[in-house]
Each structure stands twice: as structure tokens, then as C-alpha cells.
Amino acid sequence: LHLVRFGGSSSTIKMFPELSFNIDHGYLEGLVRGFKSGILRQSDYLNLVQCETLEDLKLHLQSTDYGNFLANEPSPLSVSVIDDKLREKLVIEFQHLRNHCLEPLATFLDYMTYGYMIDNIILLITGTLHQRPISELISKCHPLGSFEQMEAIHIASTPAELYNAVLVDTPLAPYFIDCILEQDLDEMNIEIIRNTLYKAYLEDFYNFCKQMGGATAEVMCEALQFEADRRAFIITINSFGTELSKEDREKLYPRCGALYPDGLDMLSQCEDYDQVRAVADYYAHYKELFDDAGTNPGDKTLEDKFFEHEVKLMKNSFMHQFQFGVFYSYVKLKEQEIRNIIWIAECVAQRHRAKIDSYIPVF
What we know:
65% helix; mainly alpha
């Protein structure tokens, strides 16, 4: 009691960071847990799938935490407008958290934005390759991953130019070093760049969380291990039938997951989906995902099973106190919610209701 009341010695606080956590981060952790209580429930989705038009969808969303977020949008509504507004609401909440946080939470939240930056860079490079106007591409970029030099990306025709003109002053610069040797920005090399950047990013974020220790390390290392393994499985499956060699494929695997090192060695030798599935059989939780996935009508895809497992991990992270994983988990759960709403909106707009229930409920 004496320590709690008077703050204790610095050595005690280092041993028990929970004693000081609420001083710096308690308000924001409480806030994000409050945000989480506004995530749509199964009853909300049951109402949404009954909608006949996007206007009906708008009315149902008004009765949730989304409120009047579409109030100023003229009729007829489009799915792209709903998508933009859902994303905008998440960005406002995230920026509020970022603007009011202290270190090391500030750096943690910055790390969360780097993945969006990578996606934006790849979108811009791919769009430029297909001669799309830069203004049109910028509007499609995720606002959480925006940075000042984005609009200069169209001047780069090689990875070296991309690095020197655009990325050198961004947080992604250290991740890009392994990409500079690529000769051209063609479709194949762009995918290699995407996966090389993600590999370096995930490993860096994993090490940062591990160094923080405590509950943050426990929750975040498990989440990032899953993300690394998911990427390794997907990279392997997507490489079948392409020119990517086994050696180059192995270089793209993030080395911070449960599959490292033995599972990645086995994946690097796989030549078809059944062999990938055989690797998953060595890992109980991945075996379950592969066993439940299928390609027949009505079956859930492997991607859906990965999303379901991610939702489960993210929900579990809220069971731990005094840790930063709740911020990561909240954004991931909101992303899934946005995917769900957009899926239902697309089905309503196209009057294609047969698969309208193929969303992934969060709560």
C-alpha cells in the first residue's frame, strides 16, 4: 500500500510496471476499452442482413455507435462512400489516441501505422505501373498510412529511385534496404518488395514488443507470431505456378512466428497445397484451420479461417490488464467489422443475397 500510495522507488516500478501504467496510459486504455464496447454485436448483423437497400443499412447503423456518420451524404448512397466513412471514423478514433499518448505507447501506435504505409506504397507503385493518375490513387490510400512524400512516388522507375526519392526519410527506410537490388518495378518485383517490407516490419515490431516485456510482450508476440505465420502460409500458396523460386520464396518468410525455423524450412520445399497442409498438421491450431477450410460451395475459405482465428486472438487480448495489445486488437477488430459491413452492403447493393451471411462476427 505504501508503494502504491507514494509511487514507490524507481527500481520497484521497473519490477512492477503495473504500478505506473495507469499514470501514463490508464486514461487511453480505458478509452479504447470503451470504444470496444461499441463494436457491433451479432444482433446488429442480424438487422443489417435484413436490409433491402443501402438507405435501410444507413438507418440501422444510426442506432449503433456509428450514429449519424452518413448524415451528410446525399442519396443514392454508394458502397464506396460507406467504406470511406467507416474508415474515416476509425482514423479519427486512432488519431485521438495517438495525439494524447506518451512514450512508449506513442512509438507502439506508430508501429501500427507502418503496415498501412507499406500497403499504400504498393498501391501507388502498382497504379503508376498501370498509368493511373496519381490523384486517383492517393484517394484510395489508407489515411493511417499516409506520409508527406507519397505524391512523389510516380517519379520512381526502379527500387533505388523509389528509396532515394520517396522512402529515405520515412520510417520504412530501414526495411527497404533488402529491396534496392531489384532491377525493375514490374508486377513480380512489386510483390517481392511488398513481402520483403512486411517481413522486416513484422520482425522489427515483434522485437520492439518483446523488449517491452510484461503483458504487452505476452499478448503482442502471440498476435505478431500469428501474423507472421499467416503470411508464410499465404506466400507459399500464392507462389505455386509463378516464376518465384523456392530460394527466393524462403527469403520472404517472416522469422518471428511459431513456424520458425522448422516449419519455414518445410514450407520452403512445398510444391502444392496438400504439402502446405501437411506442414500445418504439425501445429495443432493451424491444423484445425486447414481442416475446417474448403473450396466447395458453402465452405469457409482458408482466408476466412485465418480471419476467424485473428478475431479470437484479438478478443482474448482484452482479458489482460496494463498492456498495449488492446490498442492493436481494437484496430484489428474494427477492420474486421468494416469488412463485414462492406460485404453486407455489397450484397444488398447488388441484390445478391445468397452469400450475405458469409461475414465473420466479432462478438
